[in-house]
Amino acid sequence: xxREHSTVISAPPPVVWRLTTxxxxxxxxxxxxxxxxxxxxxxxRVGSSARVKQPGQTAAVxxxxxxxPETEFTxxxxxxxxxxxxxxxxxxxxxxxxxxxxxxVTGHGAGIFAMLFGSLIARTIQRxxxxxxxxxxxxxx
Length: 141
Fold this sequence. Notes:
The chain is of the alpha+beta class and 141 residues long. It has a single domain, classed as START domain (Alpha-D-Glucose-1,6-Bisphosphate, Chain A, domain 4, 2-Layer Sandwich). The protein has helices at residues 13-21, 110-140; strands at residues 2-9, 35-38, 49-53, 60-68, 72-79, 82-93, 96-106. Strands 1-7-6-5-4-3-2 form a 7-stranded antiparallel beta sheet, with helices on one face. Helix 1 packs across helix 2. The longest helix has 31 residues, at 110-140. The termini are far apart.
């Protein structure tokens, strides 16, 4: 299963990047995240992990797989025999920053998972992009 949502945020990539990588701040502006706790001190880097609690779910540990400053941040978790990969991709545009969020779910049962939760995940990442847009507007103001 793969779901993706893109939007243009009227803020430069460094502003959107700071919001993206300050994961412990997400609960303050993102309604789809209740708590985030970094499990290692310091900025995000490959191998960093965080415990993420979302509404209606048990907490999951997400581990950074790739990070390219001001461009991309990918992390993953394993739940219920599935591998979930979350990707944040930023690209400068004439109007600010194109922010693309995606979730990929692989493994045995991914098809059933997509049938049951695909629409919910699509709405969730759209709401997350809207939250980044609002937060970036407040930072830029």
